[in-house]
């Protein structure tokens, strides 16, 4: 019998949980049963939809204890990152939504204000919750509101600099605030860094408070010398802390430390949380958990404990159900290793995501040439700058959405020094199920303003390999190579190349120049075929390097009646906008239409669904292009006029 069938046939306690109050009434024995039922429920549901299974299996008891001690939503529970909030969703009445988890019309994979009053922060980027918590605690104190603020922070998130900036302010403010460190030794993969080593030492040593309490009790009963002797011993408290349980780094900040406690013991966690709640100031509760706890395939997955299977998986084995395909990430990983074999100066950097970004393959081949900096994209960028200054060529592999956090470092620490650093952006464009905080649609717009930065957008495996090699060959400034998530489409060979621009299709008629950016190459071919049926000729080109705009692309534009660009990045400041500006600068008066992603918060769903909603399908684009070109003779399309143009005219 499957886990799902067993849960359905024996609904037990979980079926009766519709809110936190139901959990508060349960006995210790019932909580143990409920925890097992929740794990069965999670495995059954996530195995059908995909999602973050490993992190949530590890926080079942922790989340139960939190909802027993605190009164959500009056007390605010913040999750960093939000992918560990599935159990929280279950306990706050959203069990029914798990049938369509991360799918159109179903639950988001992260906290979501529209779903529940129990959810507050949605951005789901690591290392931010403590800053939110600091602000909330200050606001409640100023308003005189007696409300608890609880931030659940993974040990991986604590490798991010924002956490330590926040901790410094939290300690100074001294407001009641509970910080739960969910310490499983991992973020996506095993946690890297000095803090991780520190927490590991805490896991292996008894608490110093127990030592002090024992000494105090013994000396307190000793006449005359007992109390003075205890004061002497208390004066060397820091030395005892360092020797027995070195949590000095927290208490020296002025933040009380409790733990470590067994994060899978509801009673132990509950006791620690109640003590923290009643303390009246900032407290860190250090809970030791195991990612993937209670599900054998997750516990045995050494890579990332089934952190986030990308689709449905077999309950018995944990393996994906869908047939394996060639992924963009795999192509990048293989080519990077090939390049590194040829060039000893090429090194890799990852921000706690070696496996998801493909850097792990390089690490296995050349372990001394890969640096995992933890969840610290800003540091990754500037550390890469230092590596480049030292004569190396760093390849920084991150998700596109996460490089936004390091804009200042890319701009001033890398680009201003004209340093050869290559940033490889995985999951670029509309990624789908993870929702708006993870859409990598901002990069071509945001980083397009960086002087000297070159941006490549490959359309298939062959061009990814080629453009990656071109990027690491650049020695006078930074480069970006960006590609989407999922399977790579079949290679689409070019008919010819004009400068860096690939011509994919052309016609005897030069009605439309269709600029298909990156993975939209195949879409461009389909559009050209549809428009040709209406009697118009379309030239389809792939710029390959979209920033700066190739001069050859402007020349091609001048030879056509209409230019249309299509990209899976934000339209504002995107490739189409940059092309239009380059054409104006060259006094090319051909009208331009740019198709892309509106600068809005788009809901979660599949990539295909979101692109269809945005009109970025072959059918939609072909209809638009046909309409525009057919109106040209009777209703000429005016070139886009920017503020700069208007200013020059005045």
In short:
Helices cover 42% and strands 15% of the residues.
Characterization of this structure:
There is one protein chain. With 650 residues, the protein is α/β, with parallel strands linked by helices. Helix 5 crosses helix 14 and helix 16 (328-342) packs parallel to helix 23 (461-473). The chain is globular and about 80 Å long. The chain starts with a helix and ends with a helix.
| Structural class label | alpha/beta
Instruction: Report helical residue fraction.
Output: 40-55%
Largest sheet: 7 strands, mixed
How big a fraction of the residues is strand? Answer: 5-15%
Radius of gyration: 28 Å
State the end-to-end distance.
77 Å
**Count of DSSP H/I helices:** 29
Strand order of the largest sheet: 7-6-8-9-11-10-16
Mean pLDDT: 85
Shape: globular
The number of E-state strands comes to 18
| Low-pLDDT runs | 1-10, 202-216, 218-226, 228-246, 641-650
Describe the SSE topology:
Layout: H1 3-9, H2 20-24, H3 28-49, H4 54-57, H5 60-69, E1 76-80, H6 86-91, H7 129-143, E2 149-154, H8 161-173, E3 177-183, H9 194-203, H10 208-220, H11 226-235, H12 237-244, H13 248-251, E4 256-262, H14 266-279, E5 282-288, H15 296-299, H16 328-342, E6 346-350, H17 354-357, H18 359-365, E7 370-372, H19 377-389, E8 393-399, H20 400-403, H21 407-415, E9 422-426, H22 443-446, E10 454-456, H23 461-473, E11 479-482, E12 496-498, E13 501-505, E14 512-516, H24 521-532, E15 538-542, E16 545-547, H25 551-558, E17 562-570, H26 575-585, E18 592-597, H27 607-613, H28 618-631, H29 643-649
Parallel strand pairs: 1-2, 2-3, 3-5, 4-5, 6-7, 6-8, 8-9, 9-11, 10-11, 14-15, 14-17, 17-18
Antiparallel strand pairs: 10-16, 12-13, 13-15
Helix pairs in contact: 1-3, 5-14, 7-8, 10-11, 16-18, 16-23, 19-21, 24-28
């Amino acid at each position: 019998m499957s886990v799902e069938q067993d849960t359905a046939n024996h609904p037990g306690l979980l079926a009766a949980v519709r809110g936190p109050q139901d959990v508060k009434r349960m006995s210790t024995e019932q909580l143990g049963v409920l925890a097992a039922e929740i794990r069965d429920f999670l495995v059954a549901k996530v195995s059908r939809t995909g999602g973050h299974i490993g992190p949530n299996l590890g926080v079942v008891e922790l989340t139960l204890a939190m909802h027993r001690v605190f009164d959500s939503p009056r007390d605010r529970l913040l999750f960093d990152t939000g992918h560990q909030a599935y159990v929280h969703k279950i306990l706050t009445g959203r069990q029914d939504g798990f049938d369509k988890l991360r799918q159109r019309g179903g639950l988001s994979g992260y906290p979501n204000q529209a779903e529940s009053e129990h959810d507050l922060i949605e951005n789901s980027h690591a290392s931010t919750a403590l800053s939110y918590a600091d602000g909330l605690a200050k606001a409640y104190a100023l308003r005189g509101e007696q409300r608890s603020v609880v931030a659940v922070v993974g040990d991986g998130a604590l490798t991010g600099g924002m956490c330590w900036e926040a901790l410094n302010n939290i300690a100074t403010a001294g407001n009641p605030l509970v910080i739960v460190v969910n310490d499983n030794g991992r973020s996506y993969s095993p946690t890297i860094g000095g803090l991780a080593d520190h927490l590991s030492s805490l896991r292996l040593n008894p608490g110093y408070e127990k030592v002090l309490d024992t000494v105090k009790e013994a000396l307190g009963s000793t006449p005359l010398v007992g109390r003075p002797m205890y004061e002497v011993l208390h004066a060397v408290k820091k030395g005892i802390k360092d020797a027995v349980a070195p949590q000095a780094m927290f208490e020296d900040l002025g933040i009380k430390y409790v733990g470590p406690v067994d994060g899978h013991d509801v009673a132990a966690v509950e006791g620690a949380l109640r003590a923290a709640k009643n303390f009246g100031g900032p407290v860190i509760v250090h809970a030791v958990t195991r990612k993937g706890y209670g599900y054998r395939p997750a516990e045995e997955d050494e890579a990332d404990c089934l952190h986030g299977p990308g689709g449905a998986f077999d309950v018995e084995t944990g393996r994906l159900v869908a047939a394996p395909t060639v992924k963009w990430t795999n192509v990048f990983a293989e080519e990077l290793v090939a390049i590194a074999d040829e060039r000893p100066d090429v090194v890799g950097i990852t921000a706690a995501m070696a496996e998801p970004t493909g850097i792990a393959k390089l690490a296995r081949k050349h372990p001394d040439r890969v640096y995992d900096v933890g969840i610290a994209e800003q540091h990754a960028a500037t550390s890469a700058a230092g590596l480049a200054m030292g004569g190396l060529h760093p390849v920084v592999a991150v998700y596109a959405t996460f490089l936004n956090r390091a804009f200042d470092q890319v701009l001033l620490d890398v680009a201003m020094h004209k340093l050869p650093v290559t940033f490889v952006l995985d999951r670029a464009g509309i990624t789908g199920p993870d929702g708006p905080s993870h859409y990598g649609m901002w990069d071509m717009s945001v980083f397009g303003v960086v002087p000297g930065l070159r941006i490549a957008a490959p359309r298939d495996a062959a061009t990814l390999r080629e453009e990656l090699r071109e990027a690491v060959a650049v020695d006078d400034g930074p480069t970006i190579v960006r590609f989407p998530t999922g399977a790579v489409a079949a290679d689409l060979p070019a008919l010819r190349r004009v400068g860096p621009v690939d011509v994919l299709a052309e016609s005897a008629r030069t009605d439309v120049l269709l600029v298909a950016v990156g993975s939209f190459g195949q879409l461009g071919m389909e559009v050209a075929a549809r428009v040709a049926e209406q009697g118009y000729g379309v030239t389809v080109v792939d710029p390959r390097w979209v920033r700066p705009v190739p001069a050859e692309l402007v020349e091609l534009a001048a030879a056509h009646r209409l230019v249309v660009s299509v990209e899976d990045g934000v339209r504002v400041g995107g490739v189409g906008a940059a092309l239009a500006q380059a054409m104006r600068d060259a006094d090319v008066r051909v009208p331009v239409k740019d198709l892309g992603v509106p600068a809005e918060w788009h809901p979660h769903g599949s990539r295909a669904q979101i692109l269809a909603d945005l009109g970025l399908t072959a059918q939609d684009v072909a209809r638009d292009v046909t309409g525009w070109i057919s109106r040209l003779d009777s209703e000429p399309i005016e070139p886009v006029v920017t503020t700069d143009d208007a200013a020059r005219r005045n």
